[in-house]
Write the structure tokens for this entry.
Amino acid sequence: MRGRFSFLLIILAGFAGCGASCKKTPDAIAKDEGGGEIVELNGVDTGSLIVTEKRLFTKVVKDIMSPCGDPVTLEVCVKEARACKKCLPAAKTVAKMVSKGEAETEIRAWLENRFDDKAVKQIDVGTSPSLGPADAAITIIEWADFECPHCGMAAPVLHKTVEEPEFKPKTRFVFKNYPLPSHEHADPAARAAVAAQNQGKFWEMHDQLFTHQEQLTNQEIEGFAKKLGLDLEKFKTDWNSNDTKDKVAKDKEAGTKAGITGTPSIFINGRKFMQYGHGDFADQLKDWMRLELAVMAGGAAPPRPAPSPSVSASASK
């Protein structure tokens, strides 16, 4: 009997000895194992991150400086609730990027592109077709190829977003052509859009071309022009004119100067929109625009594309 009692005491002592560590959270254990401090910031949800992801989040927010130029880190900026309106959104994005498996290099590159004023390009709108007020707080410029399937998928998302009540009064959307040489029908389609613009029907032709990306032969494009009620002879003349070819070439030249290499390429107030992870294009676009508006409301408006003295008359839909 005494032997059994002694055995039970040994078992209970074993449980008592592990009590403190058995109750530790994974984060506390990770710290004991040399993982270091794990930072939590008010307003930033890191609850769903695993320990290694929390470590990466911590490293980034403790290393990256405030996007407003203050001599403090992103961590300090958020913890002290500083006036910089970019800190909390930046920290939230870091958490999202970490959760989607982005590496530290990609996160740093995204933050630099999003907040460094050196990343802003001066882009002349010129006579490119546009939607929205010329003095809008946000100017979105898209370079696209009508035969590019990714452009075809992006088009309805972009148009739906800029038409939402939250953004419509404050957003101008500008379209520029960037036909890729690998797409046989991209250049004729771009020139057809310019020819339709000459008759005030750019956006109508834009929709036809993107809706029928698999049907962009010259004959089919002429059918779109007829369907839209365009003066067909004028359309054909403009379609093949040197002036139209020059306009498409200037769009491409401006895109190359801005540093684009593929389509669609989207710039918001002169800064290239960078998506991270997979999917969520619409959500990330809206988040970017909301941050842009918040920053401007805080009196720290970012540089904007060079204003154009003239706006396309075809900017109605």
Remarks:
- The mean pLDDT is 86.
